[in-house]
Amino acid sequence: MDNKVILDTIWVLVAAMLVFFMNLGFAMVESGFARMKNTVNILSKNFIVFAVSSIAFWAIGWGLMYGNGSGYFGAEGLFGLSGADNSPASGDAYAGVYSALSWATVPLLAKFFFQLVFAGTAATIVSGAVAERIKYLSFILFSFLLVAFVYPVAGHWIWGGGWLASLGFWDFAGSTVVHSVGGWAALAGVIVLGPRIGKYGKDGKVHPIPGHSMPLATIGVFVLWLGWFGFNPGSTMAADPTAIARIAVTTNSAAAAGLISSTIVAWVLLGKPDLSMTINGCLAGLVAVTAPCAYISVGSSLIIGTVAGAIVVFAVLAFDRLKLDDPVGALSVHLVNGVFGTIAVGLFAQDQFMPNTTGDGLFFGGGFGLLGTQLLGAAAVGAFAFVVSYAFWQILHNTVGIRVRPEEEHEGLDIGEHGMVAYPEFAPSPERYADPSLPRGPSSPSRALKSSAEVVLERKT
Amino acid sequence: MDNKVILDTIWVLVAAMLVFFMNLGFAMVESGFARMKNTVNILSKNFIVFAVSSIAFWAIGWGLMYGNGSGYFGAEGLFGLSGADNSPASGDAYAGVYSALSWATVPLLAKFFFQLVFAGTAATIVSGAVAERIKYLSFILFSFLLVAFVYPVAGHWIWGGGWLASLGFWDFAGSTVVHSVGGWAALAGVIVLGPRIGKYGKDGKVHPIPGHSMPLATIGVFVLWLGWFGFNPGSTMAADPTAIARIAVTTNSAAAAGLISSTIVAWVLLGKPDLSMTINGCLAGLVAVTAPCAYISVGSSLIIGTVAGAIVVFAVLAFDRLKLDDPVGALSVHLVNGVFGTIAVGLFAQDQFMPNTTGDGLFFGGGFGLLGTQLLGAAAVGAFAFVVSYAFWQILHNTVGIRVRPEEEHEGLDIGEHGMVAYPEFAPSPERYADPSLPRGPSSPSRALKSSAEVVLERKT
Amino acid sequence: MDNKVILDTIWVLVAAMLVFFMNLGFAMVESGFARMKNTVNILSKNFIVFAVSSIAFWAIGWGLMYGNGSGYFGAEGLFGLSGADNSPASGDAYAGVYSALSWATVPLLAKFFFQLVFAGTAATIVSGAVAERIKYLSFILFSFLLVAFVYPVAGHWIWGGGWLASLGFWDFAGSTVVHSVGGWAALAGVIVLGPRIGKYGKDGKVHPIPGHSMPLATIGVFVLWLGWFGFNPGSTMAADPTAIARIAVTTNSAAAAGLISSTIVAWVLLGKPDLSMTINGCLAGLVAVTAPCAYISVGSSLIIGTVAGAIVVFAVLAFDRLKLDDPVGALSVHLVNGVFGTIAVGLFAQDQFMPNTTGDGLFFGGGFGLLGTQLLGAAAVGAFAFVVSYAFWQILHNTVGIRVRPEEEHEGLDIGEHGMVAYPEFAPSPERYADPSLPRGPSSPSRALKSSAEVVLERKT
Amino acid sequence: MKKIEAIVRPHKVDDIREALLENGIRGMTLLEVKGIGRQKGHTEMYRGSEYQIDFLPKVKMEVVVPDELAQTAISTIIKAAKTGEVGDGKIFISTVDEAIRVRTEEVGESAL
Amino acid sequence: MKKIEAIVRPHKVDDIREALLENGIRGMTLLEVKGIGRQKGHTEMYRGSEYQIDFLPKVKMEVVVPDELAQTAISTIIKAAKTGEVGDGKIFISTVDEAIRVRTEEVGESAL
Amino acid sequence: MKKIEAIVRPHKVDDIREALLENGIRGMTLLEVKGIGRQKGHTEMYRGSEYQIDFLPKVKMEVVVPDELAQTAISTIIKAAKTGEVGDGKIFISTVDEAIRVRTEEVGESAL
Ligand SMILES: Nc1ncnc2c1ncn2[C@@H]1O[C@H](COP(=O)(O)OP(=O)(O)O)[C@@H](O)[C@H]1O
Ligand SMILES: Nc1ncnc2c1ncn2[C@@H]1O[C@H](COP(=O)(O)OP(=O)(O)O)[C@@H](O)[C@H]1O
Ligand SMILES: Nc1ncnc2c1ncn2[C@@H]1O[C@H](COP(=O)(O)OP(=O)(O)O)[C@@H](O)[C@H]1O
Q1: What is the ipTM of this complex?
Q2: Which residues are C403's β-sheet partners?
Q3: What DSSP string describes B293-304?
Q4: Could you tell me which of B88, B56, B210, B183 has the C-alpha nearest to residue B127?
Q5: Does B207 reach chain A within 8 Å, measured CB to CB?
Q6: A231 and A363 belong to one structural domain
Q7: Which chain C residues are within 8 Å of A213, Cβ to Cβ?
Q8: Where are the alpha helices (DSSP H) in B80-150?
Q9: Which of A322, B166, C120, C370 shows the greatest Cβ crowding within 10 Å of its Cβ?
């Protein structure tokens, strides 16, 4: 077979494996940022979500996203990859129903596998934001709906040759397609679910609920950072040496810059370099550079990462002020910086890097045209993803129910939902039990109190 | 050098690295499913086992497996890769003593490295099944024997051009060669060792002994899943785009299906979605698809995974009923599903995917021929691996001894075997100490009891 | 584009990603070997250090290392990769200011990314040795200085076409450039910082301070071992099948041999197979084989690994005797075995493997020439790296300060430096609190003592 | 002096602590315990076998107070700890012969 | 009322609990403790240096019973906890002045 | 017999243990506790919100001794535990009615 096909296939598959591995990253960041008593539940969610995504994307998602159809969704070869396709034939030689990817010179199943791991990422983003209170079953069902319908439709608009693609909207590796779609779906979930019991005091005070294991969270962020070297450079879907090398460096630079800027902002603003903020900052840089990574210089990637790292700290504080309870910072990382990264294309893109794609952005003399399209795309996808997700959450809420009972939330979802605990042999710290997850304050006035207390003293003194 | 050689070598080495990484996966699943007090021991075993395998396979295993010889074992170039070999020359151009792999167009050491990581996998499978009671030294010695003699002989039959290969037995990536060989060796060990103290009550009741860390187990399963993308698609030992893309997808689909079906079966059968079963179910799907992955459609892989996920739940319950104590489910995953996967080739194979190999299986009109050969191969390898392993275990039992003393088992192997503990600064939970690993019940009747108790009251009241 | 460019770029980028992943490995080994109360600090250090390295190496390090200039440091294209460069053009076709890497047929940013991850490794080595007492800020500053100045200058001498390269000094993948530079910088830090409070008794007795989590350390060593398959085989910077396959096997063999020999030495010498020594032994084998990996046979790699594994055990004991407190064994692994590996080139190199490079070493009839050069190089780099690092540490010591206050060291750096703890919900073990990190013994004589105690008895009896 | 040992629901600890501080009782010690009483435990499952967790997580608070403060302390704890459901816990009162403040070697009630 | 504090081997806890329940003693509280007594500790090693672990893991069970049940409780515990080896533990008995059930505010023996 | 409960700084445990052993007191039990007293807690931060950690880690040592050894034990503990800074801890002394050694069923002081 043609060398280019082999080279591109190796590259795409290796990249896909790295992106697959991000599932571990998400599982670890999210379980590290959650409480001990909900650990089995989060692990279970982040484990099953990729399996559910695999089925949902195979069954219908892929077809809706990449099947030939209208500007709004795919309509051919919808189910189970069943459409005609002669990949790796490409360009004019391509004959099949998945034309939107006809430029890629890799076999159909390589395309599918690569796109699948992206779909899985969108779904796993939701898991963290709705953690510590959602029913296991309803999370599974929502994940299926997201990957089967919401993600592929939005994806069709941009990567499937749909209306946004036609308008000249560019999202190289998915700041919008993956991260902000996941983020909007998460936001809808957070709103419908409400905050964890005890997170926000009646006085409006925020009661922090520290995650139970910083080492797990750190494992997670390193694995995600690694995975992003598949996510971004892999999105060439071709082993183009100059492009993949540049994208590897812009990706890394944005991560580094986001990590450092979030650390500095937290240090200055909050007094201490909070590791959980640093972790979010690194991820923020990565999410923000995802859309522009191929179109920008290394210098621009450093700026984008720096801004993203600062944004994420303020976003975390802001969501708390809005009483939108997101235990892991998924909204601040994926939604806010997904949008920022999309806009950054309009600001930092340079025609020289990928000629005949974005053209120049605002800061490089290209005017407001690209920026406008990016804003429009971010808004349109946001509106669609949020509204449909909201509807799905409401439907689940009114059928199977989405939130566990308060007693179960207090006792921990691990026992309630899974009948097991994550660390059966470790003793919990006594005062940390004093979590804010049950209503506080004196209960019903105690009629018999005085007498009983008196009795004690009478009898003894 | 020829592009094909370069491409194939890159692919084989990257795949080998992923398979190597499965050692971490096994270490984490197994230590997560073991108790705190045996954690250092399990980590040590799963760490040293790959080193021992590396030496054993280099010293003799490789030669026995791939050296030219009879249909039963290799006889040329036995020791230290010392035979003549002009790889990457291949096919007719190949001149050397390792002809069985002469079809692969990669250098000798690439072949060796790739085969080595498979040998290591077989050995590490044993570790989990014999955990929490085996002597460190005897585990090391058994691992050496397994990789030096048992694994390569069985491997020679199938991958080394031996008698099973001649009969038309197909095991693409090692459901039989790797997983069920490891599983049979583990079963022999479990029988010779006996169950952990306290696991089975005199009444026949099963006392569950929960693993100490679900996060570690979850890290492990994700790493294994990743590694399987090297294990299966890498077993092409050539960068054949269509094949490797398809195998990546069949592998992933079976994992996803096994994960979901085991979850559902556990949920329905046992009342809760047990994460430890879900982890086993995912691995079961992966093991089962290992033999057929290249010969089947994506649809078949989903069916195979679904069945494997269900099998594993029943197998776990069954082994407990048989009082075969396997702390991590290695028998249910690797032995049972290794056999099932081997049989699945006979059922689901389709000639179209790898022409001139399997032909069609039973479900695709190929009749019972292939199925019969697969059953024969599974049985023959099982008999050989079990009997020889059993003999090795017995020899070790009667020389260095294989089981730690009961007091050491109770106190934990970490202190007894390694003089250290895994988590010196964490407090254990008091009631979880109440483990079943020491004999229960009232001890010798207490003669002085009544008097002493009386004294108390007499003196005080 | 030319197939060779594509192949080499894929290989270099995949290798670079694996080396990047070693940051997780270091983070886990080092946090596993540290105490619970300093875990957030170590994680933070090992997380931010790669970001700082990324900036420092981009800003100036790369130019100093690979810019055309004198034999001592680069002088052209110093800042921000700003020099002219027409990579992937190579050899005579190359035109640019980074001639030292003109042999590599990959784009500039692929070269940069690969070299960057090596620079980051040198910096992260320091983290472990100075753990549990260094100020977060001063560690960040030192890392910047190391990667901006110390590492690239030493690197220029060897890999940048400098004076050691001209003399015929060979260090294939960086036993000297990376590991011993990192090790010498760490040694200087350990000396300036002094040991952790309580590590060495007044009687000269060593008080062991066990690490808090062996599972984390084990995760780390597996990830490092994996990463080394990028580190060594990747250092070809070209997809040369025979070389990369051989290097993969020599690397693996040395790791396996080091792992086993350190285990045996510890078992025999200390009575138990200490997992922490086994981990160090594996890493020692890897570090030692890093310089010679491409120039030696598999047999030699087994010998080198075996020796390295023994060396590391004695080195750990020796550093403790010298009261050089290195919580994770970084000096024994990276410094001592970095030097040993460099020397091993002079002993074990064989011309046949990389013709026209090293020639034969002492044990293969090449005489003392190569050995002499290797010794000279190891010494020169050691002197330079140690002296300059020492100066930097002293400057930091006299400006921002490098060591936390004793009370903070006692309470843990997590609260002092970061205002958070790693495991807020886990109860610490009471007697393990009894750590030696605060001065022992009776405090000021208690004047009122007798009276108060008497009162008790008087009043009660 | 009286030693009050209150075995309470873990999530009530903060309320009790605040209530005690409000009532001027500034010293207390907390222990993580597991308890069996009337409150039912729960069932966990692992790999297909169920097992009963009888011991429930509780927190034991120990407060040593002068005799005259005992009533206040007890009333305060009861008020803050009560939910009315089974498992609210127990309070045991016993006599302490002497108390000493290590730092100053003060003895008796002034040491509290 | 008597408070019985039994410091026992951790793995005997289940037996003791069952024996107590069989004898109608339904309330007890468990604490994870470390003990020094006659039983020798063990040596651990880390990176070439040995150190002595003197404190052994034990579990302390606290049971408050009416005076008339004290003898039964003690006998039951001894019977279930004994192995005859050094390290079987100790039982300390002391007097509790009062007991209160938080939920109902019952006092005295009926609160147990 | 007296029960001495000393709530001390965790890092003083080793000194106290050694001092007690030197004075012939060979039995003791250790508990991990959290304490509130005069010593101030500290502030932690998580994701931008501060929270107060009031409970400080302490270790409670329980030593039961014959009456005549109580003074020695107390003096020894105070000497080893004192730093002079707030937070050195408290010692509470109470009366134990009886002690039993489980292994031998010895009672009284000989059981200690
Ligand atoms: N007799 C007892 N001795 C020691 N601790 C007890 C005793 N009875 C109850 N407890 C402790 O008190 C806790 C709460 O008691 P429980 O009977 O469940 O609540 P309630 O007082 O509402 O009936 C138990 O979990 C146990 O820790
Ligand atoms: N005087 C004491 N005060 C408090 N606890 C004690 C005392 N003596 C023993 N203990 C506790 O009892 C446990 C068992 O005591 P040990 O002397 O080892 O057993 P034995 O009673 O068989 O001689 C010790 O580990 C310790 O926790
Ligand atoms: N009244 C009390 N009852 C029970 N425990 C107390 C009491 N007062 C203090 N403590 C315990 O003693 C520890 C030290 O007390 P603290 O007041 O901080 O020290 P100091 O004695 O130096 O003033 C506290 O953390 C707490 O655990």
Answers
A1: 0.94
A2: C134
A3: TTTS-HHHHHHH
A4: B183
A5: no
A6: yes
A7: 422-423
A8: 108-129, 136-145
A9: C120
